[in-house]
Amino acid sequence: MPHASTPVLRDALRLTPGVETLGIESAFEVAAAARRLEAQGRSVVHTEIGEPDGPTPAHIVEGGIRALRDGATRYAPAAGVAALRDAIAAHMADRGVSATAEQVVVTSGAKPMLLYAVLALVRPGDEVLVPDPGFPIYESAVRLVGGVPIPYPVFPTDGALRDEAIAAAITPRTRVLVLNLPGNPTGTAVPAAVLDAIAELAVRHDLAVLSDEIYSRLYFAGVHESVASRPGLAQRTVLVDGFSKTYAMTGWRLGYGVMPARLAERVTALVINSTSCVPPFIQLAGLAALAGPQQCVTALVSRLRANRDNIVRGLNAIPHVHCASPSAAFYAFPDVSGLLERSGLSSTTLSRILLDVYGLATLAGSSFGARGEGHLRLSFATSPELLAAALDRLAACAFDLSSAHQLR
Ligand code: PLP
Question: Whole-angstrom Cα distance, residue 374 to residue 397?
Fold first, then answer.
């Protein structure tokens, strides 16, 4: 009870509409629920968070430690350490993009860069095309600034994205097209001709493109090409990438954007107004990652490829579960609608039962958009043993749900 003389809070903590309704990423919620169960002594197999399970490669850790010892502990330039910006600009050539260091802004992970791009480009009422199913942060960032997210379908069953689906969602109010290729949660990659057609759409409708390429190095066949490599696209694209997934550096928080220099200057103003800079020793660890041997990436991709083949085979062996084989990234996105129809559950309830009863942490497909309903997302960036355990637990749950249905 408040003391008689304690002033009553009326509107002091009234939230802004944007923050009041701000969305989250359910991976963080499920991970917290899983940790609570583990604290009670329960065994949980984790497939919810999207991160490589191994440690950051030693030469990258060493780069960070060396930088700390050398005194890289003061403010760095807001847009990033010069050597890292140079290395990132040079690295863009691998995906067909020519860039200079002044176009690069280094941020604390790819996520803040996504938010900065939306803050810089989206005005209230602007429509922004976002993939569905897709990474939920696009939609929440757009809503935060009063923009209107317009989902376009990425077909969850085969992970395919068609340029016609994007074309159909464009209106005179469309301002930004968000692309996530390769995509989370479907592992979508598109043929060069589809990328050409998407680029033409952006030019024809004068759209800015926010191209999230965080999984660009985790391809199972072929190589990544950026939409920014297409004619007329570099001057309208904010290309976002980072170190989290490629170099097992999720906890370091290091990402970047590559964009026209005029925009980079304004995004740097956003960095100055928020974090001031990314800690310089973290940036120098990132430099060690880009400049050092890339064998760690090749090894990660071959481990992920083997895991993908195992999990896709295992999922398809479970009755009423179907899973397409993703072309990139490290997520299986099985269609479990057969199970849901039999049991009358939603993907959210199924995911909760899997965690609470079977000790398997997954994400509900619906947390990636309306078109994700009927699916689950499982990260396969884990050990073969844990993947086998995940499949066993899912199979046990599927069996129980199907048996219960037959008894009714
Ligand atoms: N973009 C996508 C599509 C992601 O899946 C993720 C992480 O899950 C991120 C961005 C965030 O990456 P970072 O750790 O660099 O902020």
Answer: 16
